[in-house]
Every structure is written in C-alpha cells, then in structure tokens.
Amino acid sequence: MNAPAAGNAERDALRRRMLACAAVAERLAAPGDLSTLGSRMLASLSEDVDALAVYLSRTDQDLRLVLQAGCPQPPPAHAPDARALCGVAPCVAAQEGGACIVALGPARPAWIGARSAALAAVPFDGAGQERRGLALFMLRQAEHAPSLAALLELAAHKLSQALERDPAPLQERSGADGAKTRVLLIDDEALLVAHVRRILERAGFAFHASQSARAGFALAMAIHPDVILIDKVMPDLDGIKLLRMMRGHEALRTVPVIMLSGQADETARIAALGEGADDFVVKPFSAKDLVARIEANVRLVRVRRDAVWREGELLRLRQSQRELRTLLDTVQRVRDDERRMLAREVHDQLGQILTAAKIDIRLLQDRVAHPERPPSADAILAELSAALKSVDLAIAAVQDIAALLRPPELEAGLVAALRWQAADLQRRTGIACHVLHDPDDYVEQPPFVSGELLRICQEALTNVLRHAGASRVVIQVAMRRASLLVRVCDDGGGIPRGRLHDAASLGLKGMRERAASIRASISVYGRPGRGSMVSIRRRLAYR
Fold this sequence. Notes:
Helices cover about 50% and strands about 20% of the residues. By secondary structure, the chain is α/β, with parallel strands linked by helices. The strands form 3 sheets. It has a 6-stranded antiparallel beta sheet with strand order 3-2-1-6-5-4.
C-alpha cells in the first residue's frame, strides 16, 4: 500500500472510530438490563470488536463475570486474575490503567474462539470497590492504533458508568443467572415478526428480529443469541443456505436453530435437520408450542455446555494435581539439596576451621605441659593468634550459613534485603545490579510477605544467572494504584514464550506458588534479544 492510500485508510479508521465513540455514548445513555447493555455496546463497536466480556473485582475477591456479548462460548464465571482468564498476561499498560492490545496465538482459551486476532484488556474504576473491574474486547485485527485504544478506553468508561447506574447489586454469572434468554427471529413477514414478538416478550424472552437473511446473520454475530428462529423461504437468501452459513461459523455453530416453514412435507424437514437445524416448526404454530420448543432447546444446550465445562474443569483439576505432585517432589528435592549443601558447608568449612583451631590449641597445650621446655612468650602469642584467626573464620562461616537461611537485612525491610541481594549478586558475578525505590511512596510489608517477595526475586535473579546472559539487572519497588509493584528486569536474551507455561519450568511454578501464598499476581514477560521482566503486584488490602 502506497503512502497516500495508507493515509486515507488511517483517516477512514479514525473517522469510523469517532462515529463509534458517539454511538457508544448514545446507546449506553438509556437504561437497560445487562443483556441489552452488552448488545448495544457490541453493536456500537462491531467494526473492530467481535465479542466482549466485563468482569468486576473487589480487593478481597477474584474477577467475576457480569456481562458478555458475542463470545463463542460462555466465559468463565470466576477467575483469580487476567492471566488465568485469557491465557496471556495483560501488559504493563493495562496494569497501570491503560488499554493493552495483545495478539492471540493458537494457545487461547476456548471461550475466546479462533476468529479473533487480538485481545484488548482495559481496567476501569467506578465510584466504589464494587464497580472496579476489567473489560475484555476480542478484536478483529491485532492493531495498536491510538484511536482504537482511545475508543476502547471510552467504551470501558461508559460501561463502568452504566453499571454504576444499576441500583440493584450485580449478581454473579452462572449457567442460569436470571438473565433473559435472547431469541433472534429472521423472517421477512412483518406480521409474523410482530406476532412472535408479542408471544416471546410476554413469555419473558429478550426478542430481536431481522427481516433479511444477511442482516440477520450480522445481527446474530453481534448479539450472539441463545436461540435463532429462521424462516425457510426468504427473498435475499434461502433459509437452508443461511443455516449452512451459521453452522460453518465458529461463533454460531453451537447456537440452537429452529427452522420455521409453511411446508409440512417430510423432505423439507429432513433437509433442515440434515443441515444442522435443532428443531422444525410448521406454520401456523401455537404460542405454547413455540415457547416450549425454545425452552427445551435452551435447556439442552445449557446441559451440553455444562457437561463440556465440567469436563474441562476436571481436566484442569487433573493437570493441577499433576503439577502439585511435581511441585511437592521438587520442594522435597530442593530441601534435600539444601540440607546437603548445609552439611557440606558445615563439614568442609566450619568443620575444617574448627579442627585447625583445635590443633593449634592442642599444640600450645602440649608445649605448656612440659615445664622443662617452656615456650617463649612470643611462641605462645603466635599460637594463640593462629587459633584466634581460626575462630574468626569459623564465626564468618556461621554468619554465611545463617545468611543463606535468612538474610539479616530482611529484618530491616524488603528494600534493604533487596539492596543486600543486589550487592551480593554484583560482588559475586560482576553483573551491574541496581535497586530503584522511592522511600516517600512506600508501605512496608509484613515479615512473611517480605520474605516471600525476596524469595521470588532471588529465584528471578537465579534465572538471570543461569539463562539470560545479562550484563545489567534493575530491581524496582514502587507503589501503583494502592498496590505494591516489584519488578526484576534484565537486558539478557529474553525468556522464550514457550517456556512461560512449560511443565519443566519449575522455577516459574515455584514463583507463582509463592505469589499465590501472599495473594499477589505475578507476570513474566520476555522478548528475544530484549531481555525479560518479572512483575509482582500485591494489593495493600491483602496485608
């Protein structure tokens, strides 16, 4: 694409997103239930966004789903953090309050689906703790345009405002959460549409309609209904072809479809069911029959989804059990290694030093015990001096062993212990290591928390020594949005993405386990040739 064409495309995208900003503000101004809210938002962002999910969090709870639209499968109702929810860690911009766009690879959660190219994470803060959360947008393209980031941040802000206007407390989502069942009717007969609308709205359904096949397909992609009713004969596209399109698209593949037809012959029924229709209703139909068929298909799909979800949870539980067994074996092996190391230090250093001191003292005792050959004062002083040197070496060895078990600087706080660790690393390896810290903006952590944070940083520094080949390391301790943030950054080769969740990466698993023990989140980033970063975030309310 040449420069003028690229400029025109950029201006068109900017103009389109400005119109989307106006649409977001307009459509979310009117009150509505959560289902309508999600449909309105997705319709406003349909040029860039395939689906969205909104999670709320409190300082003492995990993320909980309150709103979703367009997702191929229901998103998880709960998640401990964004990494567990999305399969990727939102970048630093998202953690600090900005929009972050992350390209999605093949290893993505099933609820996101395969059609989205990128995931945008936008945190938001409402008037109170109940309205703090994270908005996730599944994007059609992995684009990092400032106009797109601004649009998504505005959308998240408007969503938070709309949620704040809701006087009723937001309930946690589940398979049957009380939200209205969304029904989409695609039929070109206006009278039939009006008739079905009265039936379904009276029965408590959220009703949507389209009077053309292609517009109905686009609307189905935007609102992701629970049930779709399709007329078999329409002017722009045959109902069977429309059904075939839906069954060929991942987002609509599992949505139950009921075919409506004025033809009661067996051939039409077999053709519809053969293309993937879940049910076949002959016109004219009774209101009770239509409502019963819709409810039956919705129940069946929910049962299937619950079975799939339980199977997935069972697989994840088995995987967690295997990882736990591996971690326990690793912990035991590390303990044995530490015991052997301590025994070796005591035997090779402390034992030899004390043995040398004993020999010096014994020689002096033997010489003093023979009065016929009394030693001179200089000889006695020399022997005592040698013994004292051995005792000093023994004391130093004991201090080194004690420092291995628990750094004495930890008693002075986390920052002091990190400075000691950085100085020790620089002394032993020659790698420049610095600690950045603002003492005016820091809240000291409890001793157990400081100890776990120090162990995580020690493991990160060990990984730098083993794998990174770095020449410089920076440890940052800062406060961000009422949270403690600790980062360990290096300029080495960068950790490969495939190793972030590798079962053999026991060091990373150990760091995550330590972070979980103090209710902190940990993220690891790395780019080939551009270094790595380990980021630990802990809310102060968790103290």
